[in-house]
Design brief:
Number of domains: 2
Distance between the termini: 75 Å
Helix content: 55-70%
Strand content: under 5%
Shape: elongated
Number of strands: 0
Structural class: mainly alpha
Largest sheet: none
Number of helices: 5
Length: 184
């Protein structure tokens, strides 16, 4: 079979392509608004990235020309700036505040509470109490450590809490964790 001349092959290829594109036209028309919206969104995001790159370059250049000063306002004080005797705060003598709306999240009891009639509980406290320094933990700190504890340790902590301070939020947290751990 002889091959057709180059020009004929070009015209036939163009005619077939035009026919294929004509057949796709109804679907293309339906998809056109989404295509345009997608291209516009892409263009906007690209522009935002380019602007962010320019700002970063500007920041780097300005920082090299004018190095930042480590200025701290007179009124700003940070824990590392305070001496040990100042860090406790005025009149607190290093004691935690356990009254008011944040009493749930502290490790101690309110000063107005009556002491419980429990004999020296530190002598018969489980090892996990000393290991975690349980007495000083807040509710949030205890919650963060619960996932690493075994069920036996959780039960020991719950028994210890019930025998000593009987703080409802701590007991509920421990009981719920025991339930979840045993359900696995």
């Amino acid at each position: 079979m002889a091959t057709a001349p180059y020009g004929v092959r070009l015209l036939v290829g163009a005619a077939v392509t035009a026919l294929e594109e004509t057949r796709k036209l109804p679907q293309t028309i339906l998809m056109y608004p989404m295509t345009v919206a997608s291209q516009v969104a892409h263009l906007v995001m690209k522009m935002q990235q380019d602007v962010a790159d320019l700002v970063i370059k500007g920041d780097e250049t300005l920082e090299s020309l004018f190095p930042p000063k480590d200025e701290q306002p007179e009124w700003a004080t940070f824990d590392e700036d305070l001496d040990d005797d100042e860090s406790a705060g005025p009149g607190l003598d290093g004691e935690r505040l356990t009254e008011g709306r944040f009493a749930l999240f502290t490790g101690g009891e309110p000063e107005t509470a009556e002491p419980k009639s429990i004999k020296d509980t530190t002598a018969d406290a489980p090892d996990i109490v000393a290991e975690l320094d349980y007495e000083s933990l807040t509710l949030a700190q205890l919650r963060a450590r619960l996932t690493s504890l075994r069920v036996a340790d959780l039960e020991a902590l719950l028994d210890y809490e019930s025998a000593t301070k009987s703080r409802a939020p701590f007991q509920t947290l421990l009981a719920n964790r025991i339930t979840r751990a045993t359900a696995k």
